[in-house]
Fold:
Amino acid sequence: MTKKLMKGSEAIGEAAVQAGCHLFFGYPITPQNEIPEYMSMRLPQVGGTFVQAESEVAASNMLYGAAGSGERVMTSSSSPGVSLMAEAISYLAGAELPVVIVNIMRAGPGLGGILPSQNDYLQSTKGMAHGDFRLLVLAPWSVQEAADLVQDAFDLADYYRNPVLILGDGLIGQMMEPVEFAEGREPIKELPPKDWAATGNDGSKPRSVINSLFLDPEELERHNYHLKEKYDRMERDEVRFETSGLDADYDLLVVAYGTVARVCSTAIEELADRGVKVGMVRPVSLFPYPYRAVREAARKAKAVLVVELSMGQMIEDVRLAIEGSKPLHFLNRTGGMLVSPDEVVDKIQAISEGSSQEVVHA
Amino acid sequence: MPETVFSKPQALRDVTTHYCPGCTHGTIHRLIAEVLDELGVRERTVGVAPVGCSVLAYNYFETDFHEASHGRAPAVATGIKRARPDLVVFAYQGDGDLASIGTAEIVHCANRGEKVTVVFVNNAIYGMTGGQMAPTTMPGQVATTCPLGRDVDLSGHPIRVSEMLSTLRTPAFVARTSVHTPLLSVNTKEMLRQAFTYQVEGRCFSLVEILSTCPTNWGIPPAEATEWLEKNMLPYYPLGVFKTPESGSRESMPLER
Structure:
């Protein structure tokens, strides 16, 4: 199939359609409006349904009803809107419903701004909402990868019966790149029939109740252990990351995800021309986090640099990975400001010259 | 062989409910179940349970169910119906769930004209949480969060949901009824039959508001609760059909260029 030049938001929408998602519920919020706009145009063409909900709260609960009916369904939003969906996401995880949620992050807190950010990392990977649950979180760094991850996300959601979050920054939604959709794509997992869906009961199977209420504490405890077993399997089988420059010797390891990793890539290439050797680990799955890959890559390095569009969120996972074994440095911009390749180059030079201050935690 | 003239509806499960003495949820459950049986739709019906006293409704109906979060049953019902238009979908909600935390969801579900049926049980109080003031609590009525009685200067007047929804232009069936007498229960069943029939025929959104007693949280015996409903709720919440699909329109008004 030929490559097509597409905006990230549109590629995300088309990828969902290609994955068999015929239902989309959403509410407008900048900077991701092109996703619902695309779906409102595209879904009727394939006999699907687009509903502009009255709020993100309602959209996420429409998702619950549609997913509980056994259909592939998606919503998209940006940071404040995802906060409004958080309650429903807890219910979706508790009731084990497969859905795909796209968060094109904008800068916060509060109403914040509308420019790119990575400041929802902790929300996405640790504390989306009340209760013990996890989302599978995938972070693309290109439009092509966004399209691929969205299609994988539907398979993973169905396989684990769990919400999957695509975490992008504003750049992923807005930039245009060539993208290709493979024809005759096969699911990446063997998917069992959705016999648990609530689609009417004629007595041929047990009654289906889509539910996260367990008033008996022993039953709820068993349910939580059952969910944990799923999250453990995700941690075992779904870790995704990419590396560069790890085969050769390197003095510094960079850890960055999403479009920030592309900025770092440019900087690393520039430094290579000057003879400065830098390796990089780019986490693609943020939950499960590639702790082992970061830990092993850090062994060869003299220091580790984390680059993020936040005040320091993923750096907590890098700390867990390297457990104080190497000096840790941090470069960031926030509020919608971007890190430039020059800033990364300068920071890496400062680290090698000893003029960069280490991140020290009490 | 003797002929069976009365039995439990197939759509009602043979279990004991958790409802208090004098509560009318049980009566309302039975009327819904009878209607589902008589319309022959039980096997393709999916219910949506609320948060509130009827949170466990999914244990009482012999149909598939979704348990919604507080107030969101109309959004969940929308998701089910849009995903599977062949299913008969009903949401069962109380007054705190529908008329307070879920106000946006019920208004927009009705305004979109989702072809679902909402059974709205209005007993003028929060039951499950222990008798707090509801948006439907009567002026002067004592509740645990208005110990001196509802003060309309501070809390406004009780919300009349059926009247409010009937102002929407989108076609709908909206009726208010009660089950505090046998005759009214018969009428309630008829209203439910009409509401579900409109959905089965793919006509419109339908909502039946049913006035209910809560002796436990009103703090009076069941018989007195019935009298209290008659004296205090009926004058403010008149029974009747507020809207039929014929009184609405799906035609758009032409835009000026």
